[in-house]
Amino acid sequence: MKRRLGLLALLLPLLAALPAGAAERRCGWIHNPTPANWWLVDRDGRWDIAFQGERRPPGMDEIPDLTTREWERTNGWYGYGCACMTVETDPAARRIRRIVAVQQLPLARCRADRALPRID
To answer: How far apart, in whole angstroms, are the C-alpha atoms of residue 35 and residue 103?
Structure first.
């Protein structure tokens, strides 16, 4: 048993360091509380997308104008919505490394999802 745990302890950092894999679909609350700050909160927790002053991940232009419908404003035009994103992630850093597609969903869908935190 100790040998297996030792091997696992050696492999985990190596697996975490591997480049992002295939795109995956993640659904949940998409936050844009202030200019250039973005993250997604899904059933697995928070995934950082972009922060002001940092390089934006490829595919940011795939995010449609979310403010035209089903968008909860908390700071002028900024706020949060509900969306499914097809993304490539860095699980060790909890970051979204590339955005492939974004589909906005009704706020009611995220509000009804018991796996997501309540934010209103």
So the answer is: 21
- Termini Cα distance of the chain: 46
- Matching residue, tokens 């589909």: 103
Average per-residue pLDDT in the chain? 89
Q: Which domains does the chain have, with CATH numbers?
A: 20-112 (2.40.50)
Give the single-character DSSP code of 109: H
pLDDT category at 5 given cuts 50, 70, 90 is low
In the three-class reduction of DSSP (H, G, I as helix; E, B as strand; rest coil), residue 20 is classed as: coil
Cα→Cα distances 25→8, 40, 45, 113, Å: 27, 12, 14, 16
The structure's pTM equals 0.81
Closest to 66 in 3D by CA, of 81, 56, 52: 81
Residue 12, pLDDT > 60, answer: no
